[in-house]
Amino acid sequence: MHQKSIPASAAQIELLREELFVRAECLLEALDAGRRAELPALLQRLAAAARAQFDAEERMLKETDARSLVRHAHEHAKFLADLDVITEHARRGEAGELEALRPTAWLMAWLAAHGRTDRDLPTPTPVPSPRVRVVV
Description:
The protein is mainly alpha-helical. The chain has one domain: Hemerythrin-like (Four Helix Bundle (Hemerythrin (Met), subunit A)), CATH 1.20.120.50. The chain has helices at residues 10-33, 39-63, 69-92, 95-100, 103-117.
């Protein structure tokens, strides 16, 4: 049975975005502190928050016939694929491989760059939580 997609609202996207920032900050704190054992669970939580936000954004872009939907969805897919690679290295305890991917720099750069593309959404300009050091 096919379920109808629930329309995304600006308020829903803002809440999901806040959750993504909180999950990102938790991961960044663990990376900074060298708490490697926590990384797989934190990465999974970040992935879940990202998928929820990305789904809502893409639904809103589709509902508004935004031309940027394809580009936006591609950015989301690339983020999730990169996150999967990082998660797999963390899960295996491959510290050297994980370091080589520079997850802190990658995450902060992606969130900042993607925040600029979120301006395509009919929502207020993203403003991170005061708890989040990611600048958009």
